[in-house]
Amino acid sequence: MRAIIIFSGGLDSVCTAVYLRKQYDLYGITFSYGQKASKEVKVAQQFSKLLKFREHKIVDIKFMKDLYENTNALTNSKITIPSKFDYSIVAPIRNAIFLSIASAWAFSKQADIVIYGAHTGDMKYPDCRPSFARLFAKALNEGEIDGINLGLRKKIKIWSPFMDNLSKTDLLKKGYKEVGEQIFKSWSCYGNGKIHCGKCESCNNRKLAFLKSKIADKTRYI
After folding, report:
1. 3-state SS of 65-115?
2. pLDDT band for position 41 (50/70/90)?
3. From CA 118, how far away is CA 217, in angstroms rounded?
4. In terms of DSSP H, where are the helices of the chain?
5. Cβ atoms of residues 17 and 41 within 8 Å
6. How far, in Å, CA of 206 to CA of 20, rounded?
7. Whole-angstrom Cα distance, residue 37 to residue 26?
8. Taking the domain 2-213, which CATH number applies?
9. Closest CA to 79 of 66, 67, 91, 88
10. Closest CA to 28 of 37, 40, 217
11. Which one of 42, 53, 118, 149 is separated from 87 by 20 to 30 angstroms, measured CA to CA?
């Protein structure tokens, strides 16, 4: 079966891909949306080869940075990225945009499922919640219902680790078991330095996941 996976090169998406690669032929899609952490695109390319994706597309949607104006810390250089959760790091319906584009590819590829790496720790993000994913999949399938009924399209499912009650720590354990120390090459930081800043909300979540999983964190932090 074919799966389209939204793939940032971060810890969650890498571990999700590792978790599913024996069940599906993976087709990765990575978005350049004007994020400060543009390094994640390069890391995603490296992991797509390591994990032997059937295809990997990088989609340029940098115009989103302008649409987010001065509201989002992940794209606006004037806003400081917080060290803990703050609504300034919630990019408005970012996952809805990603899932729409990924689903367009999925319908064209006759894929069975669209995957993104949301987990139980992402409850603070509305478009990471299973309730959103289920409703959005229903809307997308309704948008292609004629093609589905004609047998020209496959009805798609949207899946995330959250929907199977998996946490970031659960994913990390599964990912580390399969790829070992390659996992430390994933990129979680919201910044774009040579190494992880070690201070932003995402770096702190990464540190906590390694701590909870009892895996020695060999990530390089400033």
Report:
1. HHHCCCCCCCCCCCCCCCCCCCHHHCCCCHHHHHHHHHHHHHHHHCCCEEE
2. very high
3. 22
4. 11-20, 39-50, 63-67, 94-109, 130-143, 145-149, 168-179, 201-213
5. no
6. 21
7. 24
8. 3.40.50.620
9. 88
10. 40
11. 42
Closest C-alpha to 43, from 1, 13, 80, 83: 13
Q: Are the CB atoms for 4 and 113 separated by under 8 Å?
A: yes
Q: Which residue has the tokens 């899609």?
A: 29
Q: 80-88 long-range contacts, Cβ below 8 Å, gap at least 24?
A: 81/36, 81/190, 81/191, 81/200, 81/201, 82/200, 82/201, 83/199, 83/200, 83/201, 83/204, 84/201, 84/204, 85/124, 85/201, 86/201
Q: Which of 135, 91, 144, 111 is nearest to 28 (CA)?
A: 111
How many CB atoms lie under 10 A from the CB of residue 44?
27
Q: What is the pLDDT of residue 7?
A: 98
Write the CA distances from 82 to 14, 37, 134, 196, 204, integer angstroms: 24, 14, 30, 14, 10
Residue pointed to by tokens 């809307």: 139
Q: Can you tell me the distance from the alpha carbon of 113 to that of 2, in angstroms, rounded to the nearest whole number?
A: 7
Tokens of 45: 């390319």
What is the pTM for the complete model shown?
Answer: 0.96
Residues contacting 20, CB < 8 A, separation 6+: 3, 5, 26, 115
